[in-house]
Each structure stands twice: as structure tokens, then as C-alpha cells.
Amino acid sequence: DLKKLKDSLDYALKYFPLLRSQLIQVSEFEYQYSPQENGLLFETHEADSTFQDSDNIEKYIIPVNSVPGQPLTKITLTRTSRGSVLAVSISHALVDGFSYFHFLSSWARVCRGENFIQPSSDRKVFLQNTAEATAEVGPHQLYSHCGLFYADHTRLQQPVQSYQEKIFISDETIRSSLEELKKESQVSFTANDLITAMLWQKYLPDWTREIDNLDTFITCPFDFRRVLTDFPKNYFGCALCFATASIDRQSLRKAALGELALLVRNSVTRIRDDYIFSSMQTL
After folding, report:
1. pTM (2 decimals)?
2. What would the DSSP string read from start to end of the chain?
């Protein structure tokens, strides 16, 4: 029902006005969101092939390009002989995963005539805890304060080969492995700690063997809505900082799974108010 979909979208956007934004550049290194009539693109299409039978699902999506003058939200409804495909692309400059799904679920609830949790844009906790930058930020500060990296120039010149690999880790494997780790260290690990450690040990030795740096790193995005004091849990925007752990390549090959999981857990535990404010200030 196209009319119902558009009417409910217009209603939802009253509470999520940022989605109608474009970027505008106000100085050499500063951008702002600018609400515009054409800040959100909604298109409808008809397709002969169905989503289930398509060998290229990307044709249903119009990706957002996060540059000044372009809409930061693009929505495409494609109607086929076996149902409709709704594709929603939103710039990461506007949303993180939580906010993306907060909007989608709210739009769906409006469409069904249900109540939804209204978003908050309150950022006063940052305004109260940030100061003017006093020094240039270099690679060391970016890593120590934010867990992020400057890309090495020589690596940028290398062709990137990408491929997809699927790994199945059963619930039973996760559950039994967590029980074993708890016996060894008495630490309450999460499934994310365990899976991150497993993937770290499986892939990083090969991925880094042609890189001169002997250290390997694992970086996990962390939603700080759940830990930052006086910060709204329903904040709409990007509320991400990064938990980064490291170990040298030789030790990685020999490390017990619990050792790696502990490095991951410690990097996540480190994320508290001071680290979050320092990260935002550095960025």
C-alpha cells in the first residue's frame, strides 16, 4: 500500500527530521547537517524478476553517497509479482546500527497504527564535557584515545581482494566454550568476546603476514548509550566508540582462546565516561 507507506513515513519523519538532511561544508574540516526538502529520496520501481530469484540483490538498493549536496537517506520500493522489496540506505554520518533500526521499527509501528519510542537528540552531556582542541591529533593520539588508525600509505596502494566466507558456530559450541573459559579464569565472558577471539586467531595471522608490523589488532564498535552517564538511551545518531585490543603475531598463533577473549573483554571494559569523552574530543 504505497499511500499508507508514504503517509506513515511522513509522520515518522516528524520525529526523525535528521533523515531529511544533506551535508553542507562550513569550513575546511567542518560539516553540518542541513535539513532539505530533497534530503530524503523515495523512489518506486517495478521489476519482472523477484527478490527470491534475483542473482543481484544490489539492484534493489540506491546507495547513499555521503557528500555535500546529496540526500543522506534513500528509500526504494520495488514491486514484483511476488511481493514488494523495501530498501533503506542511510548515511553512517547520520546513524549507527541502533538508530537505523530504531527508525525502521518506528516507521513500521506507525504503519500498523502502534505507538513507538520517540528518539532523543540531546547531546548536552558532550557540550558539558568537551573543551577546545589545543594540539594537533596524530596517529598515536588517534589510537590511544579512540582505538582507530591512520591507514599506512603503502597499504592504500595495494589492490584489495575481497571474498565472502561463511562460518557456522553452533549455540552448543558457544555455550560449552564459555563454560570452559569460565572454569579456567573465573571471568564472565560474553558470546561476543568468544566469537571475536575465535575470528581473531583464525584470520589475523594470514591477513597480516605480508605487513611489516608484527602486532595484530582487533577493533570492535561499541554502542556507548548503555554505559555513558546521563546520556539518553534512545539517542538518535551515531553513538559509537571503539574497543581495540592487540597482541603480536607470534603470540597470537600460540595464545589460548581464553587469553584472547580476556584481551577483548578488557578493551570493552575500558570504555567508560572518560574514555568516551576523550574519544569524541579527539575525533
Report:
1. 0.83
2. -HHHHHHHHHHHHTT-GGGGEEEEEEETTEEEEEE-TTSEEEEEEE-SS-TTT-S-GGGG------STTSBSEEEEEEEETTEEEEEEEE-TTT--HHHHHHHHHHHHHHHTT---PPPB---HHHHTS-----S---HHHHHHHHS--PPPHHHHTSPP----------HHHHHHHHHHHHHHH-----HHHHHHHHHHHHHHHHHTTTSS--EEEEEEEEEGGGTSTT--TTB-S--EEEEEEEEEHHHHHH--HHHHHHHHHHHHHT-SHHHHHHHHHH-
Cell of 234: 534512545
Q: Distance (Å, rounded) from C-alpha 95 to C-alpha 237?
A: 4
Q: How far apart are CA 59 and CA 49, in angstroms?
A: 11
Which residues sit opposite 199 in a β-bridge? none
pLDDT in tens, 46-102: 888 777 777 777 888 889 999 999 999 999 999 988 889 999 999 999 999 999 999
